[in-house]
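Today's session is about reading a structure prediction critically. Students often jump straight to the picture, but the first step is always the sequence itself: look for stretches that repeat, for charged clusters, for runs of hydrophobic residues. Only then move on to the predicted structure, which in these notes is written as discrete structure tokens rather than atom positions. Here is the chain we will use throughout the hour.
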Amino acid sequence: MSFLGFWRRHYRDIPRVRQILLVASRHGFGHLVEQTGLQRVLSFGRRLVSFRKQPLPCHRLSAPGRLRSMFEELGPTFIKLGQVLACRPDLLPLEYAKELAGLTDSVAPFPFAEARDIIEKDLGAPLGSLFASFEPKPIAAASIAQVHQAVLPDGREVMVKVQRPNIEENITRDISILRGIAQLIDTHVHELQPFNVPGIVEEFNRTINKELDFFIEGSSAAQLRSNFTESTVLYIPEVHAELSSKRVLVLERIDGVRIDDYAGIERMGFDRREIALKGAGAFFKMVLQDGLFHADPHPGNIFVLPDGRLGLVDFGIMGRVTEENREHFASVLVALAGHDYDALTRQYVNLGFVSEESVDIDQFKRDLKEDLAELLEPYYGMTIRQIDFGTYVERVTHLLHRHKLKVPQNLYLMDKALLTLEGILKQLDPGFDYFAAAQPYVEDLVKRKHHPRQLLRTAQKNLTALSDLANNLPRQLRSVVGKVMRGDIQVKLQHEGLRHAVRDLDRSSNRIAFSLITAAIIVASSIIIHSGQGHKLFGLPVFGLIGYVIAGLFGIWIIIGILRSGQL
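Below is the predicted structure for this chain, in token form.
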């Protein structure tokens, strides 16, 4: 995309574009604004202030710290973008992902009158007829929504989650601007092209649209509740679907103490080790049996209930694991326990981190096996329970990032949730054994995988695939042969740096042409002045003077362009 194309698409949002660019510049990213050409959106005075006089605090922060500070200042869209990126260390350097993980979206609540208007508009009835009582002051407020306590006409206590007014429109506008900026970065900023910035924006768009639709959150909560209907370990609050909409979600209120309220847990008479076992068991059931898991299990979302069960709240971020990936994940744990590097390599390939079309799969397996052996060497001789799960996941993440592998989002959500939960449970019980808690679920998964009924189902699936291949192969072969006979087969060659070289050559050619035009104006103006003909100013021909002024401005413009490029 060109700057002109960006301007045509976003001219109505220029005030917000200017705000984003100014904040980015103040936080030390003015060079990116200049490289993309977006400094032209700012006035000359603002450019000088933004690009040359950054506040001292920015200089004291690292680049990841400045990015986090910038996201916090730019509001909900960028805070959510940072939180999504924190879950995806395959999309940007690990130090950035770690810094962005500290982003919080606690903000001031919006007025009760606006919350009431949204509820009444979406549910089509006055607030008083929907609830026996409704607490005007929210108990929690975040960037997308806030939560109120209420009581239904039948006396049941509920929590009402209400979306912020105009938040969807504001996020949609910001994502549109981000798309344009991302395309300019991908075109003009060579060093950021490997990170596929437009792809990051598109993935964020998919994620945030799910969070903005409370129907999806309610459906996920209802499905999770059905998975634990008979559970003595975990309780999921009931969803009141008849009182919910895209912007309003009503859930049963649960009473208990936060899982990090250790004194409260002991006052209730519960053993902390038992609570830790319940937490791990519930999560491994979600991941290894059900395939639907809560992806944000921080202490504020987990409660210990009076009957000893754990209660979960906030189902805005959920993850899903296919049955096939559940089996691969269980195999990873088994291979890790046996220090089987071949099996570990095979399972990471099976999990979809790499495709045979993108790399030499055999060479990749050899490289990955060597790296895994080196990575796991410190664990040699340890039992499975002696291996620190968090350290292991972090090392594997480093390894995958080094190989530039893109990991499916749900698997990163699972890793993040596992690490978060491990930290919580080890605070409850310092001697907690994460792998021992997973063992029954892994064994059950392995048994189900090798059960005759499952083996028969797998065989039927493979036979169907072979049958489809046999049926389609003749047609595909005819198509390939036909293309060869017609000369339609093309070999595409791509020079790795050719596009940048062509662009730089084009820029240099334009600069030379501009310089020649400037020189021609100077020569023509000199001839006019030497002739002494025409209207005069200060005793010199006016047209000659005008030519000198134009040539001078052109010359200054050329010099500025050369200095900004850093290539004298």
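Discussion point for the tutorial: Residues 44-56 have pLDDT under 50 and may be disordered.
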